Amino acid sequence: MHVPGYIRCEFQEESVQKNDLSLRIICIIIFAAEAVNLVRVLCLSSVGLETRNNRIYFAMYCILIFLAMLWLALQRSIRQAPMCRRQMVQYVITELFFLWHLGLNTYDLIRDPRAGTTVLTTALLARSLFIQIPPWYSLCQIIVDYIIFLFSMAPLLDVGDQLNLTITFAVSLAVSMAHFRHTIISLAQRKQILQANAKLQELVKSTSLTGLLNKAAVEFQANELLQRRDSNGVTLFILDLDNFKSVNDHFGHPCGDHVLVETANSIRDIFSTASGLSRVGGDEFAVLFDLPLTETQALSLGLALGERLKHIQWQGSPIEIGCSVGICICTLDQCTYRRLYTEADRMLYKAKKAGRGQCCIRQISSEQNIHSTGKLL
């Protein structure tokens, strides 16, 4: 029944723009329809304006055209006004349009009790469908209009028609509230998407040297995967180069940068089906899969990377470089990236401690906790 504060401005802006468009279209329809009616009264009627009935209809048509022209003039003059003021003008002009239809339908019934209530019914449903109104205002508007209906038009109808129109008023209110609710949900989702995109734009920034994602980006992706209801699990590799410091010391930092770039290229080739490839800092890399790999698959990928790194050269000379790998395969229903990274990092530390070119795997699930070590080089 209310607009959440964090999307209030968006709701006002969308409501004003949507109502502006709807009222503009309604005004075009009014000008076309009432022009035909005026021609019908003045030219196609044998008595013209000589009868009171024709004069009343002629006046009613002119009033509606005046209201449409009034709205178009007001729309221009309040274009720079605050949104709340523009909204109120829209609601007032919409109410005047509705009261005009109520008055016309009432006069139709006075002339002919069999005229029906199509004019009022159409106006009610059209307003609820095409004009976006907050629930409390819509509720008050419907109550006021219904009271006016009871005193003006209802005495001219039988009980069945009165009941049908009462239901129409209720349906109109329900449609208006459903319309409002749908808009609120859409705006909230749009806001969340924009915020997520903005966060992604900030987080998903590749490191300038390797072109891989940064640490925050892969963490964001991992959390998104872990929160998915259809996820069967994830696999995280933490890769750390062996003897990288000695490469920098012996060949210099340009060579170290070359090794990092070649390692990134190797990771792209070996882990081509991964969801995220990241350089998390220094000579440490992370690879994220959106599914739980088997132990054999994980070891095979680690072995392939280790073999690939053997071929890195600097100025035609081979470089003794390898990597240690820590892997966490997680199939827990509820798991956080913090735990996933902690377990993979713990396996990396174990691999480092066991010697160069080692791969240690930890599988965590609701049924088991398995440690496994496999040599890469």
3D structure, described in words:
- The chain is an alpha+beta fold and 377 residues long.
- The protein folds into two domains: 5-196, no CATH class; 206-375, Alpha-Beta Plaits.
- The chain is 64% helix and 13% strand.
- The protein has eleven helices and eight strands.
- It has helices spanning 8-44, 52-77, 83-111, 118-130, 135-152, 159-203, 215-227, 244-251, 253-270, 295-309, 337-354; strands at 234-242, 276-281, 284-289, 313-314, 317-318, 322-330, 358-364, 369-375.
- The strands form two sheets. A six-stranded mixed beta sheet has the order 2-3-1-6-7-8, with helices on both faces. A two-stranded antiparallel ribbon has the order 4-5.
- The two termini are 66 Å apart.
Structure at a glance:
The protein is of the alpha+beta class. The protein has 11 helices and 8 strands. The strands form 2 sheets. Strands 2-3-1-6-7-8 form a 6-stranded mixed β-sheet, with helices on both faces. A two-stranded antiparallel sheet has the order 4-5.
Report the uncertain regions: none
Work out the radius of gyration. Answer: 36 Å
C-alpha geometry: elongated
Largest sheet: 6 strands, mixed
Q: Tally the structural domains.
A: 2
If you average the pLDDT, what whole number results? 87
Number of helices: 11
Helix content: 55-70%
List the helices and strands and how they pair.
Blueprint: H1 8-44, H2 52-77, H3 83-111, H4 118-130, H5 135-152, H6 159-203, H7 215-227, E1 234-242, H8 244-251, H9 253-270, E2 276-281, E3 284-289, H10 295-309, E4 313-314, E5 317-318, E6 322-330, H11 337-354, E7 358-364, E8 369-375
Parallel strand pairs: 6-7
Antiparallel strand pairs: 1-3, 1-6, 2-3, 4-5, 7-8
Helix pairs in contact: 1-2, 1-3, 2-3, 3-4, 3-5, 4-6, 5-6, 8-9, 9-10
